[in-house]
Structures are given as C-alpha cells and as structure tokens.
Design goal:
Length: about 260
Amino acid sequence: YAGDKSSDENVDFLIEKGKLLWEQRTNVEALKEADHFISLASNKRPLDFNLSILHSKIKFNIAKNIEIDPKLKDSLFLVGAKISRKAVLNHEKILLLLNESFLDSSSKVLDVINNSPKEVVPGLFWWAENLAHYLVEQPVIERLNNRELLEVLMNRVLALDPGFNYSGPYRFFGQLYTRIPGIELSQSEIYFKQSIDSNPEYLFNWISYAEYYHQKNGNREQYNKILKEILGRDINQYPEIMNDNYFSKIYARKLLE
C-alpha cells in the first residue's frame, strides 16, 4: 500500500510539473518538457480522461506551433487524435452507451458520439481538431472518407458547448468546408464569421478566416489586411489567452512572408 501511495504521489508530481510547463508553452523547451512529463504521467494513468486530453492538446500545440518537418507534424496530429479517441471511447459514460448499442462497430461509434454527454466534449473536440489537421496534407479521398466522423464529432460539440475553445466548433467547420470538394465556400464564411463575432479576442479565429477562406477565395487584399492587423494587436490585453495569441501572431508573420 505504501508503494502505491508513493507511486501515486509521483504521478501527481509529474502532472503538476507538466501543467506548470504547459502554462509556459510560449517557451519551446517548456512545451517539449510538458509533453515529456504529461506523457510519463499518462502512461501511469492511461484511463485518466482529463490527463489524456491535456496530452492530446500538447501534441496539437507542438505540431501546430513548433514542429517544422511536415511528416513529424502529421504524425503528431495523428497521435493527438488517437489519444483523444482512446480517452473518449474509454470514458465510463461512453462505455455504457457502447454496451447498450446494437449497431455494428463503425455505426455504433458514430451513434454513441451523437448521443455522448457533455463530460466528453473536450475529447470529441481534440479528436476532431487533431484528425482534421492531420488530414490537411493527406489525399482528398482520405478527407472524404473521414468527413462523416469529423462532422459527427464536431456537431456534437456544437450542440453541447458551441463556445468551447473560443468558438472552436465554428472555426472548425469554417476550415473543414474549404477543404471538402463540392461545398459552397459561403458555408465556410458563415462559420468563420460566427467564431469571430463570438470571440474576436481569440486571434486564431481571424487567422483561420484569412488562411482558409480568403486564401481559397483568392482575396489577397483581405488576407493581407487581416494578418497585418493581427500583428498590431496587444496580446497582454487578454492574459488568459496570451499563450495562444502569442503563437497566433508568430503564425500570422509566417503567413505574410
């Protein structure tokens, strides 16, 4: 029992350390170390839902904000998606729904996602967000094959918590609908405008609008205008999203090069 207790305290220590480093993620080394500690803790507590979601978010941030190698980027997004998928499908409330469903396996998962409770929203979101980013560089057929899963995941988030991650579901559909053939671009703009109207302070909403919608639509002037405007924003104004906005400004500069 004493061994269990000290092992538990060790894991608590790893989590605490990892979370502290995650809060300092504008420092590249801190972000990598956060990944290291949270990874170790996750291996010890594979069924800890919140821990897995943090791990998935960290993978997303490393892929999106610091990894340069396209292949490594993709593999990080894919790992992030798999971590969230596993966390969702092992959540006690989801296991109950899976046991009650009589559908075959692939339909069963979609059906359960469709009926999932609010507790798993972070898992659904980061599963979809990582997977969608992974699919950007994959053949169109891959995106089409995963379209239903992505839509079901994010529609559930939209239904349960539309403001999650600073209007994340709206931003997500804005991006997705510029990447799938046969969908009117105006659909994408409606979602982007909703994310910006709800959370104008979250710079990634603006960047996504420029990068996905204006670039695809060939609106060079609009694209440049939004990105230059972002560079002039004071990120100290919103301390709780300063880390994300810091990376958004760096990304805007990169897109303008």
